[in-house]
Structures are given as structure tokens and as C-alpha cells.
Specification:
Chains A, B: It comes from Streptomyces fragilis. The structure is a homodimer of 115-residue chains. The first copy, chain A, is built from five helices and three strands. Chain A is mainly alpha-helical. Chain A folds into two domains: 60 residues, Multidrug-efflux Transporter Regulator, Chain: A, Domain 2 (Orthogonal Bundle); 40 residues. The structure holds a DNA duplex (30 and 30 nucleotides).
Chain lengths: 115, 115
DNA sequence: CTCGGATCTGGAGCGCGCTCCAGGTCAAGT
DNA sequence: ACTTGACCTGGAGCGCGCTCCAGATCCGAG
């Protein structure tokens, strides 16, 4: 199984080493395995999960939101509970999309005015 | 012409008095007129402009972005320059929409998995 | 005229999400 | 063995966007 050093993981994910440690402290990823000497060893699975976290961060979710997300997915909640949670998160993201479209609409008005 | 006290303006716009002052300091709105005694007097036009700023804030634009936006719209730039700027802002917002859709897609996968 | 609530200013404080630093450890090359 | 560089931990620092506070001023109600 291929594993990655902290530097390699940072390179692969586009997330800085400091931020990877921060995410781990906050419970968003990991816990990450360690080598005999105590260095972090990232698996492909870790990298995948970091990708998910990054995706949500880019979408504007906060650290607390993601912590909750991780907690729900890893807990022993029923599939129904998970779906309820996931749908509520989805609705929140749709509302952000709507806010963006409102702003884009304003820009389009201005562009039409000057264009 | 109807004008509004700070409290009324805050009530109408949903923006706190402190934040209205902050936006004014930062050059996002105003300058707001003053009464004989030095209190702020908000016009309907001010309220409209605050609405625009709020719209962009809700869409995730930062204070610096909005300051630039205001500066461009108020300056004597040519219509072409304004349109170029507005289009670049529009593209940035579209990218945010794309990021949100990626995240929504991830949620949909999870929902499909559990649902 | 007095009282109390709204507002003023300048500046401090705060939560978030990193980012950086000091001081020490581990590991590979020479 | 020695050097060098990546990595470790705990904690400080920072930029953003407010939010709150102290102390002073204004102004409408009684």
C-alpha cells in the first residue's frame, strides 16, 4: 500500500502541512498513522478524505460544520438520521447558491447598464 | 423625502447599527448625511445601497472586494473598464457556484448511499 | 428643566481559520 | 560521527468582519 509523507500529502492535496495538522487536531481528518519515529504517514484513504474536506471548505462550510459532518458519518447513527442531516446540509448549500445567483443578477444588471 | 434614524435603518436593512458604522468607515456605504446634532440620517438611496452591499456580502464577497466594487462604480472609469471589472467579478462568483455544486454532488452521493 | 434613551467617537475584544515560530527529534547522505 | 533537512509539539500571531465598551452628547417626553 502506498503511503505519503506529510510533505507529499500536502503536495497531493494542495493543503499545507500546517493546515493538515490543524484539521487533524480539529477532528476533521485522521487520526493519521505514525511511523516508528513518530512522523505522520498518510494513506490514500486519508488523501481521499482530505479531498472531501477540501471540497466542503471550498464550498464555504466552516470547521465546526465539517466536524459535525465527520461526527455524523462516523457515528452509529441510523441511515435515516444521516440522510436527514445530509439533506439539511444540502439545503443550506442550495441557499448559498441562491445568494450567489442574486449577486450575479445584480452584476448582470450593472453589466447591461454599462454594456 | 423620507429619511431614517440609525436604528430605523438597521431595522429596515437587517444590518446592525455597529455594522452600518463599520461599513461607512470602510467606504462601502455613504458617506451618510448628518443631522444638525451630528446624528446619521439615512436616505432611501442609502438603504438601497446597503441592500446591494448586503447582497454581495451574503454571496461571500469580502470587505476589500466591495470597497473595490464601490470605488470602480463611483470613479470616472470608462464603461468598458467597468464592464471588464464586473465580468471578472461575475466569473469569480460563478466559480463559487461551481464549488458549491461540487459539494452538493458529494452530499447527493452520500444521500444516495444511505437513502 | 430634567431625565432617559438614542447616538456619537475611538478603540478594545472576539471567533474563525489558518500560519508561523521556537526548541527539540528523527533519518538519510558523506 | 556529523551535517542537513524534514518533521514533531505547543503555543503565539494574524487578517477578517464584526461586536462591544466607555465616556460624552443630543433630544424628545413629562
Amino acid at each position: 500500500m502506498t503511503t505519503l509523507s506529510p510533505a507529499a500529502a500536502a503536495d497531493r492535496t494542495g493543503v499545507s502541512i500546517d493546515t493538515l495538522r490543524y484539521y487533524e487536531r480539529e477532528g476533521l481528518i485522521g487520526p493519521i498513522g505514525r511511523s516508528a519515529g513518530g512522523r505522520r504517514v498518510y494513506t490514500e484513504e486519508d488523501v481521499f478524505w482530505i479531498g472531501l474536506v477540501t471540497c466542503f471548505r471550498e464550498a464555504g462550510l466552516g470547521i465546526a460544520d465539517l466536524r459535525e459532518f465527520v461526527a455524523i458519518l462516523r457515528s452509529d447513527h441510523s441511515p435515516q438520521d444521516r440522510v436527514v442531516f445530509l439533506r439539511s446540509r444540502r439545503a443550506a448549500l442550495e441557499e448559498r447558491v441562491a445568494a450567489l445567483h442574486r449577486a450575479i443578477g445584480v452584476l448582470d444588471e450593472k453589466i447591461a447598464y454599462y454594456g
